[in-house]
C-alpha cells in the first residue's frame, strides 16, 4: 500500500528518481494518499476520518503540515519516510487495531510526481483547411479545456473570436497552481500565463490572428550560416492568415503549471475532477474535451503502465463523455526514461535509443496520445526524433496518432516571448501588438489533434459525449506515413477524411 520510493532515505534515492518527486524541508516529500472509498461511501466523511487519523498519529510539536484534499479520492501530504510508515501503521506504536483503522482509510500512498510542460502551414498538413471549406466546421459550439500554464486573455489572438470570454465559458476558468504543497490552492489568475506554454498551445487549438498585418509580430528560428540559433522576424505570405485549427472553439483555461512550467500531479488531478464537476458527472456536458500538453514519470515497479492515479483519473473523466488528448512526451531520443526507476539514465551504447518512453497521463488507456511529425513534410521526414515512442510497458499501442509538432507558429506571451528581439515593439507599432513565435514538441502536436476533434464535433454533433467512438474514427482515418506503429501509431491525423467517413 506504499510506494517503496517513499520509504527510502533521501541519500539512498538515485538522483534521476529523486528529481521526479518534490522534496521540501526536513527530509519530507510531497505524497498523494489515495483514500479507500467503498461502495456508497461519502468522500467527505472518509476525508474527515482520515484527518482525525492524521491528527492522532502526528501530535508532536514538529508534526507535518495538515493534509490537503485533492479531487474526490486523494489527500496531499508532506511526509518524511518514517512519517509515511507511521501513518500507515496508525501510530508510532504499532498495534493491530491501529493498523486496521489506517488500512480501512488508506488504499495506497503514492509519490506526487513533478509534472512538466511538454499555425499556418501545419493546418494544411492535417487537412483542416479543406475540411473547414467543405464542411464549414470551425469548432463553433464546442468547448475545450486547456490544462496548462494558463492562457493570456489579453492576447489579440483570442479577442476577435471571444475564445475565452463567451458566455458559455467566461465563468469556468480556474487556477490550480501550487505555490506551497502544504497549503490549499489559492490561485486566482487562470487567464494569465507567465510561462507562455499554455497560450501557445491554446492558439493552435482555437482563436484567430488580427487581419491587419501591421498588428502582427512573428518570430521564426532561422540558424546562422554557422548553424547557431537565431530569432528573425517573419512576414506572412500574401493572402495567408494565422488561426487555430478550430478558430471558433471556446476554450476554458485550467491553469496548473507555474511560472517555470512545473506542477504536481495532484494539481492536474484537481483540474480533471473539476471538469467532471462542471459536467455534472457526464449528465450535462459543458466541456466536451480536454488538452493536456504535459507529462510526468511514473513508478514502473509499483503499477502497470496506465494505472497511476493520474491515468486513472483521466480514464474516469473519459468515461463521463469527455475527449482527452494528451501529448506523448519528448523523450523519444532515449536520453531519459519515462518510467522512473528504470535503468534509463541515457542511451548506454544502444544506438537506437529506447522505446516505451510515453509519459503519464499519455499511458492512460482512454487517452488519445499524440506524437510529433514535421509541420508540412511528414512523409519525407517522418516522426520527430524526440517524440516519445511506444508501446506502453504493458504492451498497448501508443501513441495513437501523430500531428505536426516541429516549429509551429502560435501565440506568444510571458517567458516565451521575453527577450526575443524579433518580437520587440517599435515606436510606431500599435499598443495591442499580436506576438507569435515558433515552438516544437508533442505539446504542439496534441493541440493540433484537439483542434481537429473540436472542428469534427462542431460538424458531427451526434458524436459529442462519445469519446471512444471519436477516437476510433480518427484512428481509422489516419494517414499511414510508412513508419513503425510504435512511432506513428495509426498515422497522421486527417480531419477531412474523418468527416467524409461519417
Quick overview of this protein structure:
With 502 residues, this protein is of the alpha/beta class. Helix content is 26%, strand content 18%.
Description:
By secondary structure, the chain is of the alpha/beta class. The chain has two domains: 4-112, Alpha-Beta Plaits (2-Layer Sandwich); 115-500, Rossmann fold (3-Layer(aba) Sandwich), CATH 3.40.50.200. It is 26% helix and 18% strand. The protein is built from 15 helices and 20 strands. The strands form five sheets. A seven-stranded parallel β-sheet has the order 7-10-6-12-15-17-18, sandwiched between helices. A four-stranded antiparallel β-sheet has the order 2-3-1-4. The radius of gyration is 23 Å and the shape is globular. The model is unreliable at 341-352 (pLDDT under 50). Keywords: Hydrolase, Protease, Serine protease. The active site is at residues 148, 197, 443.
Amino acid at each position: 500500500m506504499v510506494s517503496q520510493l517513499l520509504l527510502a532515505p533521501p541519500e539512498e534515492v538515485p538522483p534521476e528518481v529523486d528529481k521526479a518527486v518534490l522534496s521540501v524541508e526536513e527530509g519530507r516529500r510531497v505524497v498523494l494518499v489515495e483514500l479507500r472509498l467503498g461502495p456508497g461511501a461519502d468522500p467527505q466523511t472518509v476525508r474527515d476520518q482520515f484527518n482525525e487519523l492524521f491528527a492522532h498519529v502526528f501530535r508532536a510539536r514538529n508534526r507535518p503540515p495538515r493534509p490537503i484534499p485533492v479531487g474526490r479520492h486523494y489527500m496531499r501530504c508532506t511526509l518524511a519516510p518514517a512519517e509515511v510508515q507511521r501513518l500507515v501503521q496508525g501510530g508510532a506504536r504499532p498495534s493491530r487495531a491501529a493498523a486496521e483503522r489506517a488500512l480501512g482509510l488508506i488504499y495506497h500512498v503514492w509519490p506526487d510526481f513533478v509534472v512538466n510542460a511538454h499555425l499556418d502551414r501545419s493546418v494544411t498538413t492535417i487537412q483542416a483547411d479543406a475540411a473547414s471549406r467543405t464542411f464549414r466546421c470551425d469548432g463553433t459550439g464546442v468547448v475545450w479545456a486547456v490544462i496548462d500554464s494558463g492562457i493570456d486573455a489579453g492576447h489579440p489572438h483570442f479577442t476577435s473570436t471571444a475564445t475565452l470570454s463567451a458566455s458559455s465559458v467566461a465563468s469556468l476558468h480556474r487556477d490550480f497552481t501550487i505555490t506551497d504543497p502544504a497549503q490549499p490552492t489559492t490561485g486566482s489568475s487562470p487567464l494569465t500565463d507567465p510561462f507562455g506554454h499554455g497560450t501557445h498551445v491554446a492558439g493552435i487549438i482555437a482563436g484567430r490572428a488580427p487581419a491587419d498585418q501591421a498588428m502582427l509580430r512573428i518570430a521564426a528560428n532561422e540558424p546562422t550560416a554557422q548553424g547557431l540559433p537565431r530569432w528573425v522576424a517573419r512576414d506572412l505570405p500574401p493572402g495567408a492568415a494565422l488561426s487555430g485549427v478550430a478558430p471558433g472553439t471556446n476554450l476554458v483555461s485550467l491553469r496548473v503549471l507555474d511560472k517555470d512550467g512545473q506542477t504536481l500531479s495532484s494539481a492536474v488531478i484537481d483540474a480533471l475532477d473539476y471538469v467532471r464537476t462542471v459536467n455534472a458527472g457526464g449528465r450535462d456536458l459543458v466541456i466536451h474535451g480536454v488538452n493536456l500538453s504535459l507529462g510526468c514519470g511514473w513508478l514502473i515497479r509499483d503499477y502497470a503502465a496506465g494505472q497511476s492515479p493520474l491515468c486513472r483519473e483521466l480514464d474516469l473523466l473519459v468515461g463521463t463523455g469527455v475527449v482527452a488528448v494528451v501529448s506523448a512526451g519528448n523523450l523519444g531520443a532515449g536520453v531519459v526514461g519515462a518510467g522512473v526507476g528504470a535503468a534509463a539514465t541515457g542511451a548506454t551504447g544502444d544506438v537506437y535509443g529506447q522505446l516505451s518512453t510515453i509519459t503519464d497521463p499519455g499511458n492512460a488507456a482512454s487517452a488519445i496520445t499524440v506524437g510529433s511529425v514535421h509541420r508540412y513534410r511528414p512523409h519525407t521526414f517522418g516522426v520527430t526524433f524526440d517524440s516519445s515512442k511506444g508501446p506502453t510497458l504493458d504492451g498497448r499501442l501508443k501513441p495513437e496518432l501523430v500531428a505536426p509538432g516541429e516549429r509551429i507558429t502560435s501565440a506568444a506571451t510571458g517567458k516565451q516571448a521575453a527577450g526575443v528581439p524579433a518580437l520587440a515593439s517599435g515606436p510606431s507599432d500599435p499598443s495591442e501588438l499580436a506576438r507569435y513565435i515558433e515552438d516544437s514538441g508533442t505539446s504542439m502536436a496534441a493541440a493540433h489533434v484537439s483542434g481537429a476533434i473540436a472542428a469534427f464535433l462542431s460538424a458531427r454533433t451526434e458524436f459529442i459525449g462519445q469519446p471512444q467512438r471519436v477516437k476510433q474514427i480518427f484512428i481509422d482515418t489516419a494517414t499511414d506515413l510508412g513508419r513503425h506503429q510504435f512511432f506513428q501509431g495509426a498515422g497522421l491525423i486527417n480531419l477531412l477524411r474523418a468527416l467524409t467517413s461519417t
